[in-house]
Design goal:
Blueprint: H1 5-25, H2 32-37, H3 44-54, H4 58-70, H5 76-92, H6 94-100, H7 107-113, H8 115-148, H9 152-200, H10 204-214, H11 233-249, H12 252-258, H13 264-295, H14 305-315, H15 320-356, H16 362-387, H17 395-417, H18 425-448, H19 467-482
Helix pairs in contact: 1-9, 1-15, 3-9, 3-12, 3-13, 4-13, 4-14, 4-15, 5-11, 5-13, 7-8, 8-9, 8-14, 8-15, 8-16, 8-17, 8-18, 9-13, 9-15, 9-16, 10-13, 11-17, 12-15, 15-16, 17-18, 17-19, 18-19
Length: about 500
């Protein structure tokens, strides 16, 4: 596949405009809190859009239509849990963040369990984000190579370098405002694709929904009580809620955006509103999948990612195709820019500033943060290119699994941090490691059971939406048990 000269012009104009806008938005940043937190002056609605864009990658843009194409609408059950989880985060976590005027999510842990626990959790975030987002960046190269004809490394470098430029120049202001712009772009592109399907299918969307309903593809709820099935009411509402509590209550990637708002009220509006936005967004992409299923009459594709990408390149007019390809770039760049900025801020505040004696020194921390921005961008791009050698087409599953494996331990320790009585930091770190280890074992077991002897070879599976609930429960129970065996609680000492 290839795009026309007009499409390339649209794409280049978009990426140039984004870079210049990012530089303009970041003008005059005088300190680290301005660069990483926007001086806590950003409007809630822009942060809301940024949160939704941050959790939306190219995989969402291109893969979710494939989910409905191959199946039905049961994926929406997860979004019910996502909204519920964010309501809990808004009521339970955000007051603690607002009261402390924190700069990273993990600063809360220092006040409860000591600096070592803060660095331990922060280090887990860094490792997880590096692996998961390198995989996500690699996965972005798959549809972009399909659309543009570029080799995978070239696609990775173009996205990575373009995103780095405006992230480095503009800081969190550029990230949030361009995220908001990019969400409007890729969601507008999805709407344009829906209008194109209206004209491409005889009878339009009425016929699409009629035919999808006759085949049972409009099913939203699955009441099955099977822990091995990811998309059921129970896994969606309960597992999805706990997953969302972890991803939006403990992950610096999201928490950093919430910390840029002007007040607790604004933070809650952004958090809960992002749940509604995510639900509507997934509904749009899933409906597109139904339209594509009717348009292509259910034909087979080598990869589900190719379905929407093929429609964009082959069935839309020049110029419109370029706009949709820009939407693919927008989804990729919004996730990557957020990761780079979050990793840089965590490194600067949680590790570098305490050891360099620069806590409270806005100018020095800003300089260090910009260096870390370059370092993390290079690591993410390099990790994506390295993953090319090990990929077997399972990038989506790898990225999702990595996040699910660690989120339980993170959520468990944050829940313990909200208790009025602190626990020994060592007990909490042991509990977190045990929670992460137990879920990792659950994930590995079905993949190695086939080579084990006798009864051990019987495979059993627990779907990923349950991982966070299991991991957080183990973390809490082990931490409480270990607290009786180790030294007194770590005081909230000023050890940064």
């Amino acid at each position: 596949m290839s795009v026309s000269g007009l499409d390339v012009t649209v794409l280049v104009a978009y990426m140039t405009g984004v870079t210049l806008l990012g530089a303009w938005l970041g003008r005059g940043a005088k300190g680290a809190s301005d660069y990483f937190l926007g001086s806590r002056e950003l409007p809630w609605w822009a942060v809301l859009l940024s949160v939704v864009a941050t959790e939306t990658s190219t995989l969402t843009f291109l893969s979710i239509p494939g989910v409905a194409y191959l199946g039905d609408l049961t994926f929406l059950q997860l979004t019910f849990g996502y909204l519920l989880g964010r309501i809990v985060v808004a009521q339970l976590f955000l007051p603690a963040y607002a009261d402390g005027q924190l700069v990273t999510a993990y600063e809360l842990l220092e006040s409860r369990f000591g600096a070592e626990t803060r660095r331990f959790a922060s280090g887990i975030f860094m490792g997880t984000r590096l692996l998961a987002d390198s995989v996500r960046l690699f996965a972005t190269a798959i549809p972009l190579a399909l659309i543009t004809g570029w080799p995978y490394p070239v696609s990775i470098l173009v996205i990575g370098v373009a995103t780095l430029v405006y992230t480095w120049l503009g800081g969190i202001r550029a990230v949030v405002w361009i995220d908001a712009l990019q969400m409007v772009l890729y969601l507008g592109g999805a709407v344009i694709a829906g209008l194109a399907l209206q004209g491409a299918v005889d009878g339009g969307w009425g016929e699409i929904l009629t035919r999808a309903g006759a085949e049972g593809k409009l099913r939203v709820l699955d009441p099955a009580l099977d822990l091995g099935v990811a998309y059921t009411v129970w896994a969606g509402v309960l597992g999805g809620a706990v997953f969302s509590m972890a991803s939006h209550g403990t992950d610096q990637l999201i928490v950093q955006r919430i910390l840029t708002t002007r007040s607790l009220r604004d933070a809650r509006w952004a958090m809960i509103g992002s749940g509604v936005g995510a639900m509507l967004q997934f509904a749009v992409f899933l409906l597109l999948g139904l339209g594509l299923w009717v348009f292509y009459e259910g034909r087979s594709f080598d990869r589900s990612d190719e379905i929407f990408a093929t429609f964009i390149v082959q069935s839309l007019p020049p110029g419109v195709t370029g706009l949709l390809v820009a939407g693919v770039f927008a989804a990729a760049m919004s996730s990557l820019s957020s990761s780079i900025n979050a990793l840089a801020s965590t490194t600067a505040y949680d590790f570098w500033a305490p050891r360099a004696g620069a806590v409270g020194d806005e100018v020095r921390t800003l300089r260090a943060g910009k260096v870390f921005t370059l370092v993390w961008a290079a690591l993410l791009i390099g990790g994506a290119i390295v993953f090319l050698r090990f990929s077997e087409g399972t990038a989506v599953e790898v990225a999702l699994a990595v996040a699910s494996l660690v989120y339980g331990g993170m959520l468990g320790v944050f829940l313990l941090g909200l208790r009025s009585r602190p626990l020994p930091g060592r007990a909490v770190r042991i509990g977190m490691a045990t929670g992460i280890g137990s879920v990792t074992a659950l994930w590995i077991w079905p993949r190695v059971a086939g080579v084990l002897p006798g009864a051990l070879a019987t495979p059993w599976t627990i779907a990923w939406p349950w991982y966070v609930a299991i991991g957080s429960t183990v973390t809490v129970l082990v931490s409480l048990a270990m607290s009786r065996l180790v030294d007194r609680p770590a005081a909230p000492a000023d050890t940064r």
